[in-house]
Amino acid sequence: MKLLTRSLVAAVLAIAGLGAFAQEAIIRKNLAERYPNLPKIDEISKTPVPGLYEIRLNQSDIMYSDEQGNFLIQGSLIDTRTKTDLTEERQSKLSAIDFKDLPFKDAFTIVRGNGKRKLAVFEDPNCGYCKRFERDLVKIDNVTVHVFLYPILGGDSPEKSRNIWCTKGDKGKIFLDWMTRDVMPPAANCDATALGRNLEFGKKSRITGTPTLIFANGVRAPGALSADRVEKLLADAK
């Protein structure tokens, strides 16, 4: 009797699996036919909402669809019970970068306090949001910040980045003088191929804006986060 019950359970699970596969095929087929310019779908999976499916594109882009692919939704899925942005949470996991894999030789460090907590930041010296972020980041103590110069905004961003990277003095000081006090970095020249490597790494890792923060647990956070938000993410990364 127990053997029969187990066999029935296995059969039901197998049918359910086939059903899920068939449902995914329907969504893929209908979206491909009705929305031919949609990027290639990487994965389709159920969400906590009955009848709503997550459509993953471009590695970490998220959209949602009903079970027939009749509707396509772009936006955040919020759990009102916990006030959790499920879309943001999912994208953070998908876009996580292993902290130890960052090319630290192509960054310089700014240490505050005991430096025990770790943070990496990709920044363009001409980025206004980066300047706002750095002026707020000075409030945070006991952290080592690995700064990756990431000149993607055009203009003289590459030149300013080269001058900061090639300074004969303290790179962190020259960088902060510019970002927080608008003191222009003095002209300097050296082997600045590190900047090109940062751009290549960022392209490969889909770092498309500045500032982009990466915490010790791999969580990626784009934008000029407030000091309070950075403190929380640093605490979560322990």
- Computed Rg: 23 Å
Count all strands and give the number. 11
Structural class, from secondary structure content?
Answer: alpha+beta
For the record, the CATH class of the largest domain is: Alpha Beta
Numbering strands along the chain, what is their spatial order in the largest sheet? 7-9-8-10-11
Average pLDDT works out at 90
Number of helices: 7
CATH superfamily of the largest domain: Glutaredoxin
Number of domains: 2
Biggest sheet character: 5 strands, mixed
Fraction in beta strands: 15-25%
State the order of secondary-structure elements, H for helix, E for strand: HEEEEEEHEEHEHHHEEH
Tell me, briefly, the overall form. Answer: elongated
Low-confidence stretches: none
Query: What's the architecture of the largest domain, going by CATH?
Result: 3-Layer(aba) Sandwich
Your description of this structure?
With 238 residues, the protein is of the alpha+beta class. The protein has 2 domains: 93 residues, Disulphide bond isomerase, DsbC/G, N-terminal (Nuclear Transport Factor 2, Chain: A, Roll), CATH 3.10.450.70; 138 residues, Glutaredoxin (3-Layer(aba) Sandwich), CATH 3.40.30. Helix content is 39%, strand content 21%. It contains 7 helices and 11 strands. Strands 7-9-8-10-11 form a 5-stranded mixed sheet, with helices on one face. Strands 1-2-3-4 form a 4-stranded antiparallel sheet, with helices on both faces. It has a two-stranded antiparallel sheet with strand order 5-6. 22% of the residues are buried.
